Amino acid sequence: ASCVQYRLVVRDATSLQILQLYTCLDQIQYIEWSSDSLFILCAMYKRGIVQVWSLEQPDWHCKIDEGSAGLVASCWSPDGRHILNTTEFHLRITVWSLCTKSVSYIKYPKACQQGVAFTKDGRYMAVAERRDCKDFISIFVCSDWQLLRHFDTETQDLFGIEWAPNGCVLAAWDTCLEYKILLYSLDGRLLSSYRAYEWSLGIKSIAWSPSSQFLAIGSYDEKVRILNHVTWKKVTEFEHPATVASTKTIVYKEVEKSPSVETERLSFPPTRALASSLFSTQSKYDVSQVPVSLQYIKPAADRANPKMGIGMLAFSPDNCFLATKNDNIPNAVWIWDIQKLKLFVVLEQLCAIQSFQWDPRQPRLAVCTGNSRVYVWSPAGCVSVQVPGEGDFQIVSLSWHVSGDSLALLSKDNFCVCYLEREEV
User: Fold this and answer.
1) CA of 70: how far to CAs of 8, 50, 81, 90, in Å?
2) Does 424 have pLDDT greater than 70?
3) Same CATH fold assignment for domains 1-107 and 253-260+269-424
4) CATH assignment of 253-260+269-424, given 1.10.472.10, 2.40.50.140, 3.20.20.140, 2.130.10.10?
5) What's the average model confidence in pLDDT over 241-263?
6) What are the tens digits of pLDDT across the range 98-141?
7) Which of 34, 164, 197, 362 sits a CA distance of 20 to 30 A from 303?
8) What superfamily in CATH does domain 1-107 come from?
9) Residue 204 and residue 305 in contact, taking contact as beta carbons nearer than 8 Å
10) Highest-scoring range by mean pLDDT, 132-136, 274-278, 305-309
11) How far apart are CA 255 and CA 349, in angstroms?
């Protein structure tokens, strides 16, 4: 699905043929599929309205108007039959049921980066709350929205919460001014707390491994710390230095070269295909000899939100690899071998990394850097693929299909789908 101002366009994922066209009441600011892909939510925050469309019954429609309370966020519950709307100033979360048309209210949700978290099986929801200048977490049962547990957290200013994939442990971390991560059980018991250092900017990003055995914590000191699920103590820490010295690490460096054109083929005026090949540059990877010096940027100390520390973290679906980005070295992706707890590969790009995401089915990482190329790494090697088309298609984010067979590439105004051929086994 994609939206163009107030129009919602639903296409077939394999052929990109338009299946449905819906017209909303205002400019769409957010869209989200229900878990079973039968409904799609369109939020218009400016007007405080959410519209829901049915794929099976195009004539059916639903409009939720929050009225004077306003609307700042909207999302589906895991069952795909309830919608959670957060009102302006985070006064409350309203839970609307599509089946019974009933409404439930959750008071005092906290305005933080990640204040609502569902377990992977969809049974429980945790909500970060703030009341009387203290942080709390409430855990609800999603089947009837009854409160299961409510407890206060030992945080100065709770910044985010995230469940482990197995739904047994909830991680809650403090603002970057206070290095603290707390681990709670489903019944609200504090299992462990971890603090790496004090008096400096702390946690920037976290990621659970798919097996729930490891918790990776990215910090402003340019290190990733890995906690284990048995003792919740640190197993190891990964540093991101400007020089890669280990001979066991492969460094792929992106290089550009202009294609060579035979003079016999030149004609004036040049054909369209020849003109585009004359002025386009091709990109490929070279394996660099270590030690390799990476481009390091010293952050401006007098600016807010300094470009430093581990801004992106992601585990591969088989738990074997961890991909990281150190914002001080914006052009590099670091890939760590989790079985050996060692640096495995560094991808050094010509432009700053905008986004990366693992294939949901296998250890294959797609990377984009704001140009018209998509880069794909797997343990077998690394490729750079030019997106065909006229004009400048600058890829700023990407998203894998659940099957791993295709990849949506998004620019500011357009999108395209990249189809990958499956290897014959």
Assistant:
1) 22, 11, 22, 10
2) no
3) yes
4) 2.130.10.10
5) 85
6) 999 999 999 999 999 899 999 999 999 999 999 999 999 999 99
7) 197
8) YVTN repeat-like/Quinoprotein amine dehydrogenase (2.130.10.10)
9) no
10) 132-136
11) 8
Q: What is the spatial distance between Cα 108 and Cα 274, in angstroms, rounded to a whole number?
A: 62
**Using CA atoms, how far apart are residues 33 and 194, in angstroms rounded to an integer?**
36
pTM of the model: 0.92
Q: In the beta sheet, which residues pair with residue 124?
A: 141
Q: Which is nearest to 49 in space by CA: 64, 34, 29, 68?
A: 64
Place of tokens 């016999």: 264
What's the CA gap between 380 and 393, in Å, rounded? Answer: 28
